Amino acid sequence: MKTLSDLIAEGVSGRRVLVRADLNVPLDGDKITDDGRVRASVPTLKALLDGGARVLVAAHLGRPKGEPDPKFSLAPVAVRLGELLGRTVELGTEAGADGTVTLLENIRFDPRETSKVDAEREAFADELAAKADAFVSDGFGVVHRKQASVYDVAKKLPHYAGGLVLAEVEVLHKLTEDLQRPYVVVLGGAKVSDKLGVIANLLTKVDRLLIGGGMAYTFLKAQGHEVGGSLLQSDQLEQVSGFLAEAERRGVELVLPVDVLAATHFAADAEFEVVKADAIPADRQGLDIGPETRELFAAKLADAKTVFWNGPMGVFEFDAFAGGTRAVAEALVKSDAFTVVGGGDSAAAVRALGLPEDGFSHISTGGGASLEFLEGKELPGVSVLED
What is the torsion angle, in degrees rounded to the nearest 10, for the CA atoms of residue 23, residue 343, residue 260 and residue 354? Predict the structure, then answer.
């Protein structure tokens, strides 16, 4: 696999370099609420600019329906990227002068970017390739997608792995091929259905699996407990029961909440009480793990040598229900383990809660890509770079 360092060594002055970045940031109107992915893209872009390259960046934002939509414009991202690079970043269609960076408008405004028809994606990739002399893949958050600007264009230009992708892949290999034990995985988030594959695969690899967030209530229900009005995926109960049995068979310690914050309704100011996880009132819903569970999870993380965490423990966007997520994050900060925050809401929570990012070994920019790798799936945007 050729890397950004190889490209820089070859010389980039005056060359048009197309960089696939992941700039898919959350917006409140036109205000970026978490610029972590923009900041993560800066080192690769700066290295190319310092070498005199004519940089053209491709990225997406949100899920537009294959046509221009002002609410998904990358204009706010161009402004923030320019601030971080210390130079103006224009939205445009072609690479600019030597040592400049131009950002293409949302690549998903063209329906061919995400087309399932190979010929359509390749036609779009041909158009992108005509704009550049080399391609750098640096958007780890999309490498699990077989899309024109991620996969197809790499087959049409001299291609290189950017610094961010290289760092992320190295971390994933540490989680699968070079890990130290005990290996503990913490999974949260809303739906167990989003993580079926990764749970099945992790049960063959981990020593301990901690389950929190909305998905925990389906596990509790599968154990025969009432969960009141908590988030529940009834259609996954059989699957989850199978996970519980498989964990026991393999000797994997699967740890569920023992208490929760049970609220009257889903709101930031909802009244709540701490109740046992097996005694959630019918008119209440669990919105966070309780204080006993926070201590339990911290204890189960204390002796870990490798930890992967993906998904919040509760509705961390509401201050009253952010304590569980904070407790897990703080336990990782205190840990001597190799700790990986698996992108997505987990990474957003770390920043939203004001926790030190350098307190973790690695904070991923790609939750979906990380999970698919841990599920055992191929990442097309990485495999094509190895050709």
Answer: -70
How confident is the model at residue 130, as a pLDDT? 98
CA dist list (Å): 333 to 173, 202, 289, 307, 339: 22, 23, 19, 11, 8
Count CB neighbours of 211 within 10 A.
27
Is 22 annotated as contributing to ligand binding?
yes
Confirm whether residue 24 is marked as ligand binding. yes
Cα torsion at 187, 193, 197, 202 (round to 10°)?
A: 20
Locate all alpha helices (DSSP H) within 72-213, ordered by sequence: 75-85, 118-129, 163-176, 196-202
Say whether 346 counts as a known binding-site residue: yes
Which one-letter amino acid corresponds to residue 140? F
Q: Quick: pLDDT tens for 325-353.
A: 999 999 999 999 999 998 778 888 888 88
228-260: pLDDT as tens digits: 999 999 999 999 999 999 999 999 999 999 999
The pTM of this model reads: 0.89
User: Which of helix, strand or coil describes residue 216?
Assistant: helix
Q: 158 phi and psi, to 5 degrees?
A: -55, 125
Residues tagged active-site: 37, 191, 344, 368
Segment holding 292, helix H or strand E: helix 291-301
Residue 345 near residue 308, CB atoms below 8 Å: no
Token couple for 312: 């919040």
Residue type, 352: A
- pLDDT band of residue 221 (cuts 50, 70, 90) is very high
DSSP code at position 33: S
Give pLDDT tens digits for 290-316.
999 999 999 999 999 999 999 999 999
- What residues have CB less than 8 Å from 274, skipping those under 6 apart? 259, 260, 261, 262, 290, 291
